[in-house]
Amino acid sequence: TVSMLIDCDPGIDDALALALAAGSEALDLRGITTVGGNVGLDLTTANALALRDFLDLGDVPIVPGCSGALVRGPMDAAHVHGAGGLGDAVLPPAVRAIADGHAVDFIISTLRDNPGEITLVATGPLTNIALAVRKEPRIVTWVRDFVIMGGSYTRGNHNPAAEFNILTDPEAAAITFNAGWTTTQVGLDVTLTARVTTRVLDRMRDLGRLSSLILPSVQYYAPITAESGPALHDAVAVAHVIDPTLLTLTPAEVRVETAGHYTTGMTVTDFNSPTPNTQVATHLDVDRFWDLMITSYGRLAGR
Ligand code: BDR
Ligand code: CA
């Protein structure tokens, strides 16, 4: 099993990534830290708390972090994820509270106490990660693997150049890519190839209690047809941690544009660089990704 710490901003696809983690036998979830992103920090934290109970995640600590970007003004994606962040899904209110402390310190201490053991996954803006790198640069040597959902080498989604997680805090993303570790980057190039089509949705219908999270959130996220539907970006990053054979990774040097007129937040990717700092996801085995998702959801639903 792989020990994972996830920094996230739930968020529909963050929630469905947590559900994947909860249903997997291969993952040991060591903590959830939250960041402002899709919706404000209060809501991403409240959603994480509600999800911990709903997904039977036991007593995994939930620690809130930064509410906004290092330098820039607020940005959110409530127009995509709904005002509360989970579309039309309504979860029972959380029973238990957040853990003491700040996400940045929790990330540092978890990595320090378990050198070489923890895979750190970030599925929101990189604010907490950047501050952790600045506060304790040795985390880059303690981490087992660092995986993000963010960026792209071909396109943006929030605008033509930039993906939402990078654009929300480009300075934090720049610090993170420049930190001296190898980032595994799961970007839009691969996440947009796995869509919840009507065929996939049909496989998700028979999931008991879990359906009250999955169906109203996914159906809110984007229109679902035979050919297209929402992409569950963040779930692809967690799927990679569970099964590293799903993605093809290609080394490249990735730098984040922070001073562009049209291109701020772009992840500028050089596949020919002699000094790569990133393993960039360039292909996803879509069929096996959905098999993993449906199997894990089924396992969770059958509990
Ligand atoms: C990313 O942005 C957020 O809206 C999603 O949760 C995902 O992490 C996709 O661009
Ligand atoms: Ca997210």
Structural notes for this entry:
The protein is an alpha/beta fold and 303 residues long. Helices cover 38% and strands 17% of the residues. The chain contains 13 helices and 9 strands. The chain has a 9-stranded mixed beta sheet with strand order 3-2-1-4-5-6-9-7-8, sandwiched between helices. Strand 2, helix 2 (41-54) and strand 3 (62-64) form a beta-alpha-beta unit. Helix 5 (127-135) crosses helix 8 (170-177). 54% of the residues are buried. The model has no long low-confidence stretch (mean pLDDT 97). Bound molecules: beta-D-ribofuranose and calcium ion. The site of calcium ion has 10 residues, from helix 1. The site of calcium ion (CA) has 10 residues, from helix 1. One of its GO terms (cellular component) is cytosol. One of its GO terms (biological process) is purine nucleoside catabolic process. This is Purine nucleosidase. Residues 5-291 form the Inosine/uridine-preferring nucleoside hydrolase domain. One of its GO terms (molecular function) is purine nucleosidase activity.
Please give a handful of descriptors for the protein shown.
single chain; 303 residues; alpha/beta; nine-stranded mixed beta sheet; 9 strands; 17% strand; globular; binds beta-D-ribofuranose; binds calcium ion; IUNH
